[in-house]
Amino acid sequence: MTDHASINKFSSAICDAQSVKVGNPRCHSIGFDGGKMVKGRKRHVLVDTLGLVLMVMVTAANISDQRGAKILFWKARRQGASLSRLVRIWADAGYQGQAFMKWVMDRFQYVLEVIKRSDNLAGFQVVPKRWIVERTFGWLLWSRRLNKDYELLTRTAEALAYVAMIRLMVRRLAQEY
């Protein structure tokens, strides 16, 4: 007989950030992301292995991925998010570095595993584990309100990302019945 508690004993998540342009010049917290050449905001997300959002945080675009992840993890802990089973977090090269990995392990007991793109292949390639969070960004962009960030406050932009994800999950549940 299989013990379901032992099967779901450990959990993994994927962390990433996406820069989006701002559609309203009066928005608070605007910055310039030099890597993506975008003036606007950055959405930092933590998703589960199905691509469902666990946590969203919106900052100015000039906030680095590592700094945004630090704030995101603290916010998750403060809000009491049910991440107690979380053991491993996969991320892209923006989160690499021994100091950051040690910081994550010391503070949260998460193993941060950086998934890098292969240098041997040219053009587009699907990166294992990372495609999940990229698909989630695609789902969020289905919402017309999230194509650009029109909100004055970052809290409102975060709430709209949660609403878009809730809508997606409710539609999937409705198809089953």
Outline the structure in words.
- With 177 residues, this protein is an alpha/beta fold.
- The chain has a single domain, classed as Nucleotidyltransferase, domain 5 (2-Layer Sandwich), CATH 3.30.420.10.
- 36% of the residues lie in helices and 24% in strands.
- The protein has five helices and six strands, in the order H-E-E-E-E-H-E-H-E-H-H.
- Strands 1, 2, 3, 4, 5 and 6 form a six-stranded mixed β-sheet that branches.
- A hairpin with a 4-residue loop joins strand 2 and strand 3.
- The longest helix has 23 residues.
- The two termini are 30 Å apart.
- InterPro entries: Transposase_11.
- This is Transposase, IS4 family, putative.
Helix percent reads 25-40%
CATH class designation: Alpha Beta
Q: What is the mean predicted local confidence, pLDDT?
A: 85
How many strands? 6
Radius of gyration: 17 Å
How many domains is the backbone divided into? Answer: 1
Tell the overall outline: globular
Distance between the termini: 30 Å
CATH architecture: 2-Layer Sandwich
Spell out the helices and strands N to C: HEEEEHEHEHH
Indicate the structural class: alpha/beta
- Approximately what portion of the residues adopt beta-strand conformation? 15-25%
How is the CATH topology named? Nucleotidyltransferase, domain 5
- pLDDT < 50 stretches: 1-8
Major sheet description: 6 strands, mixed
CATH superfamily: Ribonuclease H-like superfamily/Ribonuclease H
Count of DSSP-assigned helices: 5
